[in-house]
Design goal:
By secondary structure, the protein is α/β, with parallel strands linked by helices. The chain folds into 3 domains: 16-60 and 135-250 and 364-417, FAD/NAD(P)-binding domain (3-Layer(bba) Sandwich), CATH 3.50.50.60; 261-360, Alpha-Beta Complex (Flavocytochrome C3, Chain A, domain 1), CATH 3.90.700.10; 441-529 and 537-549, Methane Monooxygenase Hydroxylase, Chain G, domain 1 (Up-down Bundle). The chain is built from 14 helices and 22 strands. The strands form 6 sheets. Strands 9-3-2-13-20 form a 5-stranded parallel β-sheet, with helices on both faces. Strands 1-12-11-10 form a 4-stranded mixed β-sheet. Helix 6 (233-240) packs across helix 14 (493-514) and helix 13 (465-488) runs antiparallel to helix 14 (493-514). The chain is globular.
């Protein structure tokens, strides 16, 4: 209840207590839940329906060394090349060597991977030197998610909280700040607040272990292949809780998003180029060989910049991806979903090229996490796209993302299983006694639109110092407005997502300004060359505003 309702305040519900809280229901979150379920009471908290995250949109597949003609060293080398010198070698080896085991685990869960002659069918994607992409036709993510969701729903020790949006993490330091008490010798995560959209109340969740698996922040840009859930919630919440963020300037723009007025964020898989797709200008001229010796099989950052260059040079709205030289039977077997979706829109990919444009696709940076998913905050873990494990460096190699989700879900589950649960203090309920219902909801939608447009214009595929300065100035103004809304009004999902997106935008711009070179996904006209010395961009929270230290509303 709010003070403006002039009724007695309702008694807040007691904290919901679990052994492990998992925020996010993509491949990373669901894998972790299933791996922890035998020994722990697990809560999976997801802000929309369980199937609506980014993992279900993944088309291409999962990278793993499976063929006798391939090797761990080759997969590691391909990842390092794509990452432009910024990949952490230990993290890369760890993921590559654990990848086959992760695939085997998914097989044991019942995922129906595509086969050929009784063996897993392996396709090839840009940046890979061999066929090593395990897939389920061209809808791998959807098939994996369907399988794991069914498993989760049938596991009694896992409780699923759909339509619950993360508000903020609860830490010992935050409790001490408002209660003038020492809750822990070392700061730790004690739980979180989440908005139940069905009852419109903020609930308190408590657990000794919290895993952030909320995905990336593609919705910070006007054009993205990501679903509406990709608003950087975990990255922003971890930052407010005192965790470092790393390599946030490296936002991967997928080269080939379908360009059509009635197609929203529909991705044309990397595998289309892997199976011989050619990129063409509107007049039919092939252009990628002029940009890179690997042509259409170059890494995504190279292809995206090439398309962006050709579109701006020629004043084109899009370029075209042509796979029509392949037989219809081949296209129906390998790309049934892409074929069907394009046909719905009047594009027969067996006879004509597909109009495509680059779009924000993957957040390569994130919350600093080690090889067990541990963050700077005791009891808090980050896995999947939310985390920066060191695997992706300055550019993610195609299909390394889903396998990263599973490998780190397994590593984090192992780490949690080895930790004895300690005593947790009593947590305060969310206090809304001094807030009111927002009277100008339109301000939130206007701010959201402004943010996404200037991030696209100023912090996109090609950047300059001036563009970044303009973006930073606008972010400062938006942060002030959003804080006023957050402090004064009842929280809504739109407000929470906007608050997180602006925070992530700030981290992206600050990281981009700190990098005085062009490397991987970060290309600056002011610093077009790559430096010989390479280091990650690490941002550390300092002097956090007092409002971010308050658990209750002020």
């Amino acid at each position: 209840m709010t003070a403006s309702h002039e009724t007695l305040p309702a008694v807040p519900p007691p904290p919901l207590q679990f052994d492990v809280l998992i925020v996010g229901s993509g491949l990373a979150g669901l894998s972790a839940a299933l791996l922890l379920a035998p020994k722990h009471r697990v809560a999976v908290i997801t802000k929309r329906a369980v199937h609506e995250g980014s993992s279900g949109w993944a088309q291409g597949g999962i990278a793993a060394v499976w063929s006798k003609d391939d090797s761990f060293e080759a997969h590691v080398d391909d990842t390092l090349v794509a990452g432009a010198g910024l990949c952490d070698l230990d993290a890369t080896r760890f993921v590559v060597e654990q990848a086959p085991q992760a695939i085997a685990w998914l097989q044991s869960m019942g995922v129906p991977f595509s086969e050929e002659a009784g063996q897993l069918h392996l396709t090839r994607e840009g940046g890979h030197s061999a066929r090593r992409i395990v897939h389920v036709t061209d809808a791998t993510g959807a098939a994996v998610q369907r399988t794991l969701i069914e498993r989760v729903r049938n596991t009694p020790s896992i409780t699923l909280f759909e339509n619950h949006t993360l508000v903020d993490l609860i830490t010992a330091d935050k409790l001490a700040a408002i209660n003038d008490a020492d809750y822990s010798a070392a700061n730790q995560c004690l739980g979180l607040y989440a908005l139940d959209e069905v009852t419109d109340e903020v609930l308190t969740f408590q657990a000794p272990h919290t895993i952030l698996a909320t995905g990336g922040a593609g919705k910070v840009y006007l054009y993205t292949t990501n679903p509406d859930t990709a608003t950087g919630d975990g990255i922003a919440a971890a930052w407010r809780a005192g965790c470092r963020a790393q390599n946030m300037e490296f936002i991967q723009f997928h080269p080939t998003c379908l360009y059509h007025p009635h197609a929203k964020s529909f991705l044309i898989s990397e595998a289309v180029r892997g199976e011989g797709g050619r990129l063409l200008l509107p007049d039919g001229t092939r252009f990628m060989p002029g940009h890179d010796a690997r042509a259409e099989l170059a890494p995504r950052d190279v292809v995206a910049r090439a398309i962006d260059f050709e579109m701006k040079k020629g004043g084109f709205d899009c370029v075209y991806l042509d796979i029509s030289h392949q037989p219809l039977s081949f296209l129906m077997e390998h790309f049934p979903n892409i074929y069907a979706r394009c046909l719905e829109l009047g594009i027969d990919i067996s006879k004509q090229p597909i109009p495509v444009v680059p779009a924000a696709h993957y957040t390569c940076g994130g919350v600093v996490a080690d090889l067990s998913g541990r963050t700077d905050l005791q009891g808090l873990y980050a896995i999947g796209e939310t985390a920066c494990s060191g695997l992706h460096g300055a550019n993610r190699l195609a299909s390394n993302s889903l396998v990263e989700c599973m490998v780190f879900a397994q590593a984090t589950a192992k780490a949690i299983n080895e930790v004895a649960a300690g005593h947790l203090p009593e947590l305060p309920a969310w206090d809304e006694s001094r807030v009111s219902d927002p009277d100008e909801i339109v301000v939130i939608s206007h701010n959201w639109d402004e943010l996404r447009r200037f991030m696209w214009d100023y912090v996109g595929i090609v950047r300059t110092n001036k563009r970044l300065e303009r973006a930073a100035h606008r972010i400062t103004l938006l942060q002030s407005e959003i804080h006023e809304f957050y402090a004064r009004f009842h929280v809504t999902r739109d407000l929470l997502e906007l608050r997180n997106l602006v925070q992530v935008a700030d981290l992206i711009v600050r990281s981009a300004q700190a990098r005085k070179e062009s490397r991987g996904l970060h290309f600056s006209r002011d610093y077009p060359d790559m430096l010989e010395q390479v280091s990650p961009t690490v941002l550390t929270p300092s002097n956090l505003p007092q409002q971010h230290l308050n658990l209750s509303k002020t």
